[in-house]
Amino acid sequence: MRFVSIPAVLPILLILPLTVLAQQKSPPPELGLPVKCSLGEDCFVQHYIDTDPTKNAADYQCGSLTYDNHRGTDIRIRTLADMAKGVPVIASADGVVTGLRDNIRDQYFSDYSKPQRRSVFEKGLGNVVVLGHGNGWTTFYAHLKKNSITVKKNQRVKKGTVIGYVGMSGVTDFPHVHFELRHNNKRIDPFTGNAIKSGCGPSEQNYWDDLTRVSLAYQQTGFLYTGLSETRPNGRKDLEKGVRKQESLNSAAPTLFFWSYYFGSRKDDIVTLVLKGPDGQILANYRSDPMPKNQISRNFYIGKKKPAGGWPAGLYQGEISITRNGKHLTDRAVISVK
Q: Chain-wide mean pLDDT for the chain?
């Protein structure tokens, strides 16, 4: 390190880390949301960068929406049905395509055989587009849908240009885009401006543009898919297909189930489910014990057998409530019998 003399009249010497100084000389682009969706409605941030330097994990808010050594921001969509319809991935800033890959199928990584996993793991980001923004800054858009990439290498793109579509390729187990910001190939958390594993807590740095910064307000928990159906759901992957929810029920259906799938389960949460008939009568209910630990996602269901004579006509309602620190997070769904 080279030292220079400082006038004695200066009362304070502020020494900045070299990484910060380098970023000041080559400021990052102002980033827009890399997915064309409405945050909190049809897309959500499910994982942030892991800021914890140990084998534990913490997101930038010191919360639990990450896992050990996670190196990007995962913006997920609700279901595979949404993925099939097509959710555009867009350039977060003006740039040039410096790399891409577009030949890996969309599949749950956990559904691959062990020998297949080794091969897929080598291409962990799956289908990916890399954009260069000058001064050593790059952005990565990963796990894109197979054959969905709409740009070519060396192509110049403007902020907001569609570059592909949300998929589930590579090492992933839910439909999302994995977004990374790098400076000189070192990963930077766009929510703080810090390198990964730098610790969590307040930061005045933020590399999102003004509009995106507001929409990316930290959401600890989000309901992904809540509904009612004649048949019982078979776990997260079944619900994540996005095809189980029904709007109407045959009066002769043998059973009725209410269910919900959400992300951001917290230790000590208490989950309550209630299924009500057209007259407001409680047909089924459930109340959990306090959740034993933080979990990225959970799903619950309750059900009721057909009453004698069939289901009376009217509107049936299900409600889930997560009680946390004296507050309630709720979601509802209805189904009709005519």
A: 92
